[in-house]
């Protein structure tokens, strides 16, 4: 973007919104990776073999499969919440700090329900 484009408040808000969405996405991706690693360690410890682990995670009746499905659904909901909060806050925020504070407040309110 050129300097002239960045002086447009609408473009600045959109850019801030996208920056916050990226940050939220990075945190959620890291959380997903951490949960997956924990699930792998727990399941491998419980099944005692890689074959058992693979079966448990690829069969709909397996505990690993069910946990992954649940975690994925929760993470999709969080991504949608983050996107909605970012879009809502971008309408009234005049700076990146205001936008981040608004998104944080909104997500906390959503989480409290």
How would you characterize the overall build of this protein?
The protein is mainly alpha-helical and 113 residues long. It has one domain (13-112). 86% of the residues lie in helices and 0% in strands. It is built from five helices and no strands. The model is unreliable at 1-5 (pLDDT under 50).
Strand content: under 5%
Structural class: mainly alpha
Q: Give the CA-based shape.
A: elongated
Number of DSSP helical runs: 5
Low-pLDDT segments, ≥5 res: 1-5
Order of helices and strands: HHHHH
Our measurement of the CA-to-CA distance between the termini, rounded to an integer number of angstroms, reads 39 Å
* Mean of all residue-level pLDDT scores: 81
Computed over alpha carbons, the radius of gyration is 19 Å
Helix coverage percent = over 70%
Report on the biggest sheet.
none
In short:
With 113 residues, the protein is mainly alpha-helical. Helix content is 86%, strand content 0%.
Walk me through the topology.
Elements: H1 3-6, H2 9-47, H3 50-58, H4 63-90, H5 96-112
Helix pairs in contact: 2-3, 2-4, 2-5, 3-4, 4-5
Task: Note the main attributes of this structure.
mainly alpha, single chain, 113 residues, 86% helix
């Amino acid at each position: 973007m050129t300097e002239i484009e960045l002086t447009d408040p609408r473009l600045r808000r959109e850019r801030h919104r996208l920056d916050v969405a990226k940050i939220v996405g990075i945190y959620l991706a890291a959380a997903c990776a951490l949960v997956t690693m924990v699930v792998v360690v727990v399941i491998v410890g419980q099944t005692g073999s890689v074959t058992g682990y693979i079966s448990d995670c690829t069969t709909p009746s397996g505990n690993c499969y069910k946990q992954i499905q649940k975690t994925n659904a929760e993470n999709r909901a969080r991504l949608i919440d983050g996107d909605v909060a970012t879009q809502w806050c971008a309408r009234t925020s005049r700076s990146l700090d205001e936008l981040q504070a608004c998104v944080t407040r909104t997500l906390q309110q959503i989480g409290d329900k």
